[in-house]
Design brief:
The structure is a single chain. The protein is an alpha/beta fold. Helix content is about 35%, strand content about 25%. The chain is built from seven helices and nine strands; from the N terminus they run βαβαβαβαβαββαββα. The protein has helices spanning about 15-20, 40-45, 60-75, 90-95, 120-125, 160-185, 205-210; strands at about 1-10, 25-35, 50-55, 80-85, 100-105, 130-135, 145-155, 185-190, 195. Strands 3-2-1-4-5-6-7 form a seven-stranded mixed β-sheet, covered by helices on one side. Helix 4 links the parallel strand 4 (about 80-85) and strand 5 (about 100-105). Helix 1 packs across helix 6 (about 160-185). It binds 5-O-phosphono-beta-D-ribofuranosylamine. The site of 5-O-phosphono-beta-D-ribofuranosylamine has 13 residues, from helix 1, strand 5 and helix 6. 5-O-phosphono-beta-D-ribofuranosylamine binds near residues 8, 13, 85 and 171.
Length: about 210
C-alpha cells in the first residue's frame, strides 16, 4: 500500500476525484488543510479519512509554517504528497524534502500561464486551447516535470466560469490518472522530464488528444 497525503485549501474537488477513483494499492492516509473552513475537509471526514488543519495565520513566517506542516505530513508516513488546490507557496526546504514524491495540479497548459488567474489570462490572451497540467513540484513555481496534461477548446462565448468548469472536468480525469501511474511505479524522472513507463513522453500531443472530445 502506498500512503498518500492530500493538501487542500478549499473546495477539494480534485481530492474528491482522487478518493472516488479508489486507486488499487493507494491509501489516502490524510487530508490536510491550511484553512479551517475548507469545504473539502467535510468530504474527507465523511469518508473516514484522517484530517488535519494547520492554519498558516497562526505562524509568523513561511518557514515556521512549512516546518510544522512537514512534521504533520510525515506523521502519516507518505509515499506521495498531493497538492490539490493548496494555495500556499512552499519553501525550498519543504519541496526538496519531498523531491520526486510531490505532485501539483495547475489549471493551465504549462508552461503557459503559471501563477494565478489562469482562466482570465487565457481568455485575455485569446488562446484557442487551454487546459490543466499535473506536474512534480520543484522550487520554481509551476515549473516542475510534467506528468500529464489535458487540453480543452476555448469557445467563442466563454467567460471565466465556463472555461474554469470545462478545465476542472479534465482536472478530475487527469489527477487520478497521474496518481495511479505513481502508485503503479510507472513514473520515472529523467532530468527535467517525467517519463511514464509503457507510455510516451507525456507533454506531447498524445496526452492532449483524449480531452478534445468537446
Ligand atoms: C483547481 O482548479 C486547481 O487546479 C487549482 O485550484 C483549483 C482547486 O479546486 N490549483 P479544488 O479545491 O480541487 O476543487
Amino acid at each position: 500500500m502506498k500512503n498518500i497525503v492530500v493538501l487542500i485549501s478549499g473546495r477539494g474537488s480534485n481530492m474528491e476525484a482522487i478518493v472516488r477513483a479508489q486507486i488499487p494499492g493507494a491509501r489516502i492516509a490524510a487530508v490536510i488543510s491550511n484553512r479551517p473552513d475548507a469545504a473539502g475537509l467535510e468530504f474527507a471526514r465523511s469518508h473516514g479519512i484522517a484530517t488535519g488543519v494547520l492554519n498558516h495565520r497562526d505562524f509568523s513566517d513561511r518557514a515556521a509554517f512549512d516546518t510544522r506542516l512537514l512534521a504533520l505530513i510525515d506523521s502519516h508516513a507518505p509515499d506521495l504528497v498531493v497538492l490539490a488546490g493548496f494555495m500556499r507557496v512552499l519553501t525550498q526546504g519543504f519541496v526538496e524534502h519531498y523531491a520526486g514524491r510531490l505532485l501539483n495540479i495547475h489549471p493551465s497548459l504549462l508552461p503557459s500561464f503559471p501563477g494565478l488567474h489562469t482562466h482570465a489570462r487565457a481568455l485575455e490572451a485569446g488562446v484557442g486551447l487551454h487546459g490543466a497540467t499535473v506536474h512534480f513540484v520543484t522550487a520554481d513555481l509551476d515549473c516542475g516535470p510534467i506528468v500529464i496534461q489535458a487540453a480543452v477548446p476555448v469557445l467563442p462565448h466563454d467567460d471565466e466560469n465556463a472555461l474554469a468548469e470545462r478545465v476542472l472536468a479534465q482536472e478530475h480525469r487527469i489527477y487520478p490518472q497521474a496518481v495511479r501511474w505513481f502508485v503503479e511505479g510507472r513514473i520515472r524522472l529523467d532530468g527535467q522530464r517525467a517519463v511514464v513507463e509503457g507510455g510516451t513522453y507525456m507533454p506531447s500531443a498524445s496526452c492532449v488528444t483524449p480531452a478534445l472530445e468537446y
